[in-house]
Amino acid sequence: MYIRDNIIHFIAKKHIVTTHSAVRFRDLGSLAHLLKSSLGTGILAMPHAINNGGLVFGGIGTIIIGFICAHCVHILVRTSHILCRRTKTPQMTYAETAYAAFLCGPKPLRPWANYSKIFVNTALCATYIGGSCVYVVFVSKSLQQIVNSNSGKFIGIEMFIYSLIPALILLGQVRDLKYMVPFSALANIFMITGFAITLYYIFSNSNLHSLNNNKLFASVDQLPRFFATVIFAIEGIGVVMPVANNMKYPHHFLGCPSVLNITMTIVVSLYAMMGVFGYLAYGDEVEPSITLSLPNSEIPAQVVKALIAAAVLFTYGLQLFVPLEIMWNSIKHLFNHKFLALGETVMRICIVMLTVVFALLVPDLDPFISLVGAIFFSILGISIPAVVETISCWESHLGTFNWRLWKNSVLVIFSLLALAFGSWISVQDIINIHK
Question: Membrane spanning segments where (predicted)?
């Protein structure tokens, strides 16, 4: 009896350890996905963001904005879990969470439930398409620097945007994520290699060692650009719900420590480090992407630009995958089943060409990144989560002295200010470029 009990105890203990190992492995996988989605081209724009904020204000501001973005992700996922229990639904997307919040909220808001779902899907599409436009400009700008440096001739960026059209159309036609796996793998390798060489250039820069930069605070008119750029860089809320829903134990996504907290701590630390040291290395002359500040005449610098340009190009199809799926699902009922394939192909080509047109209209990274961050990421990443939590908690869960209402009101005001002033400054910059 004693031996049998020991064997049963050993088997049970081994099963628990194996189960915990599997859970930890899944959690690590979710953490990796979240890191991959957050650590993109935005980190390359951080030195320029610090240039618009100043060393002290920019460094502290990056941490504060990172905390705000993490908090908004937290309240969105937590609200989604609560609404899943209320509606007895296994899991919800971002748009479905907004729909359920309005549907289960105060009676005067319930008729707006369907409009809220449409609004969130529209914001998602606009955000990803805006990000794709930035990708096109970034790749074209990198190629322009490489070619012009080696040829000794000046070729306008428009020619490079046109040259990308065939590749962009092919990437936009990918309709199954499994076909993007090789491209994503190559993009990760290229990006990591490019980051490593970029960090070498930053930390070997003589200006960094002498700490010549003394711009601790920027002027007030530069702050909207700082906020818009940092929001664009850090915000990755569009992929949060799929990652959280894919976890075996979704509650591991929240809490302390958790997948979200660990990921955001790593992301914000890396962004702040890249921003501060990149600005210290290149000062006020830093380009909207740190790679564009690397010397054009040196082979390693050209390799970095080519590698990261290729990585961003390979990620273009993944960036457009979500909006293309949303848009096609919303219009495919208009087509006869015989023309579904043709209709989807034409729709995808049209959206790709739309990103090309916007890139041609604003072929400059600085105002483009600020504009996308100010309009799209501030709404999607800050305003909507705050509104959704407030509505879902309206009946009896706003807390002592309605603290959730006050807190979310501050978040919405901050988001609207970033939207208004960031958009205004960005549009002014675009107008000045075209003069």
Answer: 55-77, 118-139, 151-171, 183-203, 223-247, 259-282, 302-324, 345-362, 368-388, 409-427
Q: Is 254 helix (H, G, I), strand (E, B) or coil?
A: coil
Distance of CA 395 to the CA centre of its chain: 33
- At residue 363, what is the residue type? P
Give CA angle at 200 (194, 202), nearest 5°: 100
CB 230 within 8 A of CB 62: yes
Burial label, 108 (beta-carbon count in 10 A; 0-12, 13-18, 19+): exposed
Task: Identify the burial level of 12 via C-beta atoms within 10 angstroms of its C-beta, where 0-12 means exposed, 13-18 middle and 19 or more buried.
Answer: exposed
Both tokens of 290, joined, read 């740190």
In the chain, DSSP finds a helix count (H) and a strand count (E) of: 17, 0
pLDDT tens, residue by residue, 345-394: 999 999 999 999 999 988 887 787 888 888 878 888 899 999 999 999 88
Give CB contacts under 8 A, 24+ apart, made by 342-347.
344/175, 345/173
Tell me the Cα Rg of the chain.
23
Q: Is 22 exposed, middle or buried (0-12, 13-18, 19+ CB in 10 A)?
A: exposed
Preceding omega of 300 cis (within 30 degrees of 0)? no
Domain boundaries, the chain: 42-106+130-434
Of 432, 35, 421, 428, the C-alpha closest to 228 is: 421
Question: DSSP assignment of 367-423, as one string?
Answer: HHHHHHIIIIIHIIIIIHHHHHHHHHTTTT-S-GGGHHHHHHHHHHHHHHHHHHHHH
HEC profile of 14-57: HHHHHHHHHHHHHHHHHHHHHHHHHCCHHHHHHHHHHHHHCHHH
Query: Whole-model pTM?
Result: 0.83
Tell me the pLDDT tens digit for each residue of 158-198. Answer: 999 999 999 999 999 888 767 777 777 788 788 888 888 99
- Backbone angles phi and psi of 174, in degrees to 5: -70, 120
Hey, what CATH class is 42-106+130-434 in? mainly alpha
Under a CB-based contact definition with an 8 Å cutoff, are residues 109 and 137 in contact? no
| Greatest Cα-to-Cα distance within the chain, rounded to the nearest angstrom | 90
